[in-house]
Amino acid sequence: MASKWPIKTIGPLIPSTYLTKTHNDNGKEDSRIHLFKPDYESCMKWLHERDDNSVIYVSFGSAAGVEQEQMEELAYALKEINQYFLWVVRDSEEHKLPKDFKSESLEKGLIVKWCNQLDILNHKAIACFLTHCGWNSTLEALSMGVPMIAIPQFVDQMTHAKFIEDVWKVGVRPKLNKKEIVTREEISTCIDEVVHGKRGKEFKRNALKWKDLAKQSMFEGGSSRKNIEEFISKVTSL
């Protein structure tokens, strides 16, 4: 594109501090604007008490709605697997959870209405990210080096899921059944593959490679840094 038009690519568009710090070592909530109020303290306290690579992080973003049956299959999968989970369930989606699911999952799961996703993804306790493949979520997981389980819901998310599985090779996309639902058995299988399977090690290596590339692009000599500096130089010389 740059060979045909005066385009300069920059990014990833996340705070550069997240590419240099590890596991929330700033010790405080960031000052960025959030669409919903994050439950920062509860999330961090809970994660700090978990072992490394022991938590499945689940979020379908700020806009995607999940069908009732799909929500139930996901809930039962998380309930049955031998793994901790942190699940972001917005107010508008909470009524779709199975009855008593929250109370019955207290020992292994934390359900919050919203969180600071970058701090979650950057935490050593996170083993993988079960995501709807929104672009922000996809980019943040790549930049934090976190493998993914891709369950896209609409529009560009299908393309992102394709890249996650077949191009970047940092995760898997569960298969749909005849009702266009991902079953609890399929979700459990994919979690086991990403966290414990042989391919899981490959996913983690590739995810860390993309994290390193993101870091390289944003710092001295990187493509994003150079493009921003060239753009500023051109604008200020007008």
Write down the overall geometry. globular
Q: What is the highest CATH level, the class?
A: Alpha Beta
Unreliable parts: none
Helix/strand-derived class?
Answer: alpha/beta
According to CATH, what is the topology? Answer: Rossmann fold
SSE string, helices as H and strands as E:
HEHEHEHEHEHEHHH
The whole-number mean of residue pLDDT values reads 90
CATH architectural category = 3-Layer(aba) Sandwich
Q: Which strand order spans the largest sheet, edge to edge or round the barrel?
A: 3-2-1-4-5-6
Proportion in β-strands: 5-15%
Notes on the structure:
This protein has 238 residues and is an alpha/beta fold. The chain has a single domain, classed as Rossmann fold (3-Layer(aba) Sandwich), CATH 3.40.50.2000. The protein contains 9 helices and 6 strands, in the order αβαβαβαβαβαβααα. It has helices spanning 40-48, 68-80, 101-104, 117-121, 135-144, 157-167, 184-195, 198-218, 223-236; strands at residues 55-59, 84-88, 109-112, 126-131, 148-150, 171-172. The protein has a 6-stranded parallel β-sheet, sandwiched between helices. β1 (55-59), α2 and β2 form a beta-alpha-beta unit. α5 packs across α8 (198-218). The longest helix is centred in the last third of the chain and has 21 residues, at 198-218. The radius of gyration is 19 Å and the shape is globular. It starts with 39 loop residues before the first helix and ends with a helix. The model has no long low-confidence stretch (mean pLDDT 90).
